[in-house]
Amino acid sequence: MKILLADRAIVGDGERVIEQAGMCVDQRGSIVAVGTAAEMQERFPNVEPTRYDGCTILPGLIDLHVHIGYWWNKPDASQYNDYLVALLAAKNLKEALSLGVTTIRDVAASDGLCGALKTALRQKMIAGPRIFEVNQGIIMTGGHGWQLKGALREANGPWDVRAAVREQVRAGADWIKLMSSHRTPTPEFTQEELDAAVDEAHRLGRKCCVHASLQPAIPMAIQAGFDTIEHATFMTVDQAKQMAEKGLVWVPTMITFFQIAEHYRQAMQAEESGGEFYEYLLKYGSFFMESEQAYRENFAKLMETGVKIATGTDIVLDKYPITPVADEIGLMVELGMPPIKAIQAATQTAADVLDQGDRFGSLAEGLLADVLVVKGNPLEDITALKQVQEVLLAGESRYLASHHK
Ligand SMILES: [Zn+2]
Question: Strand order of the sheet with strand 371-375?
Answer without folding.
Answer: 31-36, 17-25, 2-10, 50-59, 371-375, 388-393, 396-397
